[in-house]
Design brief:
129 residues; elongated
């Protein structure tokens, strides 16, 4: 697996965990929301209920603290600044929550390319992992 594909896979997990944290906060705001959420996972709660900037900031605070260690450990030959990755992830998750948009791996890849200067993954690489 390429450096970029590995890093994207790790970031995909981090995005899901951040959205899950956000979703738990949203659902806990009102007991009736547990029933509305039903069997849906917490990481999609932001697509049901709107969150303000302050709540988003609280929910994802510290979510990216692990990025430098992950890049050092699993980044291989990726020439990327961990702070740039954390900033990109923070902006991506913030945008998803504020707009109520579900997470999409293609959009995450777009952010990798537009914000970090990566090249789009080949189709074989994308599906190999």
């Amino acid at each position: 697996m390429s450096c970029q594909a590995s890093l994207m896979a790790v970031c995909d997990v981090l995005v899901h965990k951040a959205l899950e944290s956000m979703g738990k906060r949203l659902v806990r705001m009102d007991r009736s929301r547990f029933q509305v959420l039903g069997r849906n996972p917490y990481h999609v709660a932001h697509t049901i209920w709107q969150a303000n900037d302050d709540l988003v900031a609280k929910a994802i605070k510290g979510a990216w603290d692990v990025v430098p260690v992950l890049i050092d450990t699993h980044g291989g030959d990726c020439e990327v600044d961990p702070e740039d990755v954390a900033r990109m992830l923070n902006g991506y998750v913030h945008d998803l929550v504020i707009t109520g948009t579900p997470h999409c791996l293609a959009e995450l890849e777009y952010r990798f390319c537009s914000r970090l200067g990566f090249q789009p993954l080949d189709e074989e690489v994308r599906h190999a992992g």
